[in-house]
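Why run this: before we spend reagent on co-expression, it is cheaper to look at a predicted model of the complex and decide which construct boundaries make sense. The entries below are exactly what would go into the expression plan.
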Amino acid sequence: GQNIDQPTEMTATEGAIVQINCTYQTSGFNGLFWYQQHAGEAPTFLSYNVLDGLEEKGRFSSFLSRSKGYSYLLLKELQMKDSASYLCAINDYKLSFGAGTTVTVRA
Amino acid sequence: GAVVSQHPSWVICKSGTSVKIECRSLDFQATTMFWYRQFPKQSLMLMATSNEGSKATYEQGVEKDKFLINHASLTLSTLTVTSAHPEDSSFYICSARGLWTARLPPQETQYFGPGTRLLVL
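The model came back. Tokens follow.
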């Protein structure tokens, strides 16, 4: 099975940087996904890490350390539209989601 | 690319009736489709995994006779909630995973439909 931990909530100011941590314990691992979910909507794909290291995609970056069971999602130059829930998900040919981190961006 | 649609987006029904939700991959062939349920302020919980042409694999605690899944083609899966009760009211989301010829996006990526809100009175 999987055990996935993320902080429940984070608040940051527009233009700032926020780092969302995800720690996990899993019996099987075939990559880690980050999804963004706005209230009342379905999740949208942000990033995928299967090897250790940093993956950068525009304002969003994601890091993975398999030996530590640790990942983070880094959001830079925060915008109001980034206010959403961010879901860490372990892929073992099916996805197991963490509870999600609600990020609130304030002006 | 990678568009997944769901129909209907909203459904209200009486207790005891059955509701069918459709999930379609519009621009790719979905070898595997997944059905999730999400209650307010909670994360997504996987209900079942569906491979085209074979029986769905249900997660522990999910009644297969209550939640009927059919994956008859590479672009369509349906979830039927039979004899719905108020406790079945939830946000039902499907996702699809397909085969890609290009390296990106990663083949493991699941793309989600917009979800279906079910309210059972």
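Chain B touches chain A through 19 residues (CB under 8 Å). The two ends of chain B are 37 Å apart (CA to CA). Bring this page to Monday's planning discussion.
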